[in-house]
Amino acid sequence: MVRVRPHVRGGVRVKGHTRSVPTRTGGMSGSPDNSMEAFPFVLFALAVAAVVASLGVGLGTAADSDTLSATNFTHTRLDHSQGGSCVELSYGQVHDYLIAHPCAGLTRSLYEVTHGTSAARVAMAWVTMPDTVQAMELKNLVDQHRTGNITELTRDGVAFTGHHYDSHNDGSIVIIAQAERAPGSTLPDNLLNAAATWAVTRAH
Fold it and tell me: pTM (2 decimals)?
């Protein structure tokens, strides 16, 4: 409450009286303005997001981690190769393209993907091209079935057919993943497809 002194308003003398302090309102439906109260929480959330982003890893860093896990999938690296000739380590029309358009770098990895009690093998390749145009051309070619690929790292006689496949362009880098069942595995096709997509998604 505040005391209002006697005064004149519009030619009329107003007697001294008391009145309540006006309440500041704002936001939706006249609710109290709590934007400043919420501000520290927003800063905290942004800080947490920044820390999480800085700690995040994917298959693209690669192949520096032996085991990578996510919901429903666990990946264990079985083999890794850094460098080498894209021409010598490719086949089909992809090989022919790389003769005419040499790559600038190549990394390959082989992972075992476990889902429950079943497992798959995921062969990955990171192909660095001189520019984004050639990277897109290579991706468009390798995305077509039976046009060839980068020679896959493999183990235990697993042959990659390209039926469970995904790819992504990250600037001038083409990221390729193929999945097949590990020996004795009963992993269904939909999970083989999901494993390839999961790997590519985390590799960029």
Answer: 0.67
